[in-house]
Amino acid sequence: MSRFRTPLKNVRGLGTAKTGTEHFVQQRLTATALVFLGLWFVWFVLSLVGSDYLAATDAVSKPWNAVLLVGFLVATFWHAQLGLQVVLEDYVHNSLLALALQVSVKFIAVLGAIVSIFAVARIALAG
Amino acid sequence: MSRERPLSPHLQVYRWQVQMVTSILHRATGIVLAGGALALAGGLLALMLGPEAWACFSGHAGAWYGQVLLFGWTWAFAYHLCNGIRHIVQDFAHGYSIGVFVRNSWLTILGSLVITAIVWVWALNGGAA
């Protein structure tokens, strides 16, 4: 009986998904962080061009570099997962395949984040 | 239920415009960069495992195919960065008039090429050293 709905009810209905705003906000927040962290990361890699193994591990184990690197990794994998989720929602219409791909993307993103952050932590704390 | 229903006009009926290119490239570069994030995780893992693993990783990165991938990653990063900034500006309701939208789209593409050029000129001249 939708004709009995008030405008307020329509607004609060939030559509059929009842969700989505936090996805939008998280995507923009991680994007904003990545503008700075991404530029720092490219500069960091450029500063290591031509350096050997010891110089590279030394650079990663410097506190500021390790902290910024972990920040870059968290924001990157988070942002990548949010973006790939939308791409899959738009193009994969077989619900079972979509579910499998969505779960895979989330697991791989979390795995990538954990592995790379563990690597940075181990290099940084090894000295 | 098998009745053919009218479809809304899709990509193939439109004349190509820069706005379509920037939108499609944003998704494509985003997917590429997600793969690049996994490569970065592999690189950090190699750096953690020791000099031999790192030599293997940096050997692949320094080979011609590694350099091609790194060059592609650089442009994908630069493009996604520039176009992402354009999107954030648009989230504040700026830049929606047709003329400004087209100009900003071209600025995004131009900016990505300039950043890629700066990074590679710097890298090929020995980095910051």
What does this structure look like?
The complex is a heterodimer of chains A (127) and B (129). By secondary structure, chain A is mainly α. Chain A has one domain (20-126): Up-down Bundle (3 helical TM bundles of succinate and fumarate reductases). Helix content of chain A is 82%, strand content 0%. Chain A has helices at 7-13, 21-47, 53-61, 63-91, 95-126. In chain A, helix 2 packs across helix 4 (63-91) and helix 3 packs across helix 5 (95-126). The N and C termini of chain A lie far apart (69 Å). In chain A, 20% of the residues are buried. Chain B is mostly helical and 129 residues long. Chain B has a domain at 35-124: 3 helical TM bundles of succinate and fumarate reductases (Up-down Bundle), CATH 1.20.1300. Chain B contains four helices and no strands. In chain B, helix 1 runs antiparallel to helix 2, helix 2 (51-62) packs across helix 3 and helix 3 (64-91) runs antiparallel to helix 4. The longest helix of chain B is centred in the N-terminal third of the chain and has 32 residues, at 18-49. Chain B is extended, with a radius of gyration of 20 Å. Classes of the chains: A mainly alpha (127), B mainly alpha (129). Chains A and B meet through helix 2, helix 3, helix 4 and helix 5 of A and helix 1, helix 2, helix 3 and helix 4 of B.
